[in-house]
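Predict structure. Chain length: 100.
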Amino acid sequence: MLCRKLLFHVAVEHGLPAKNEKNRAPTFKEAVDHLRSEGIVTTHMLEWVDRIKDVGNDANHEVTPIDAKVAEDVATFTEQLLVLAYEMKARMKNASPQTA
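Prediction complete.
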């Protein structure tokens, strides 16, 4: 659930409105579409994004333990998403100019 929610926050941090004209939060699809349009989520990452959605939905609706390997996989992908969305962008901004 946490990884799914983090994906929403990343989308809002990168320009997706937190509320629509009906004062409702964006849907998961809207968040993913926004992240794709911003270039943060690529086509190759969509399988992982779907996994976050599915695992998050299960965790939200059922109170059953999640397999440790599944939890680790989802957490690792979420970590990499955060690195790409924030850390690597900041590193590039602060990078020294390349010299010939």
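Summary: Residues 2-94 form one domain.
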